[in-house]
Amino acid sequence: MCVGGVVVGLEKKDDRPGDVRVTVAEPIRRRGRPPRLDVANATAVWVEERPIRLGDQLWWQGAFAMWTPQEAHADVMPDRRGGVDYDIQIPRKGYSHEGEVNEGFVAEWTE
Q: Contact, 99 vs 23, CB < 8 A?
């Protein structure tokens, strides 16, 4: 099983140099309604630090996470699959757990 979604929170801690905690929420799509993020079930994981931003996508399984910058999402650039800017492998630094959601970002998020 893999876990992931849209990045809705980022956190660094002084006692974990080189690592970042990434919180993700899965988009919920319902016919006739605008999509929203399922922040009630948001989850997080520590990964090796990269220039990850709110709105990017991250999923993980096993020892690695896969990161896709927002500008390389398939819905924006459908021909960009498996390239340098799509599903970039990052070492995981911990187990899944609850994360901190940036409510301001979630309120403004659109797919």
A: yes
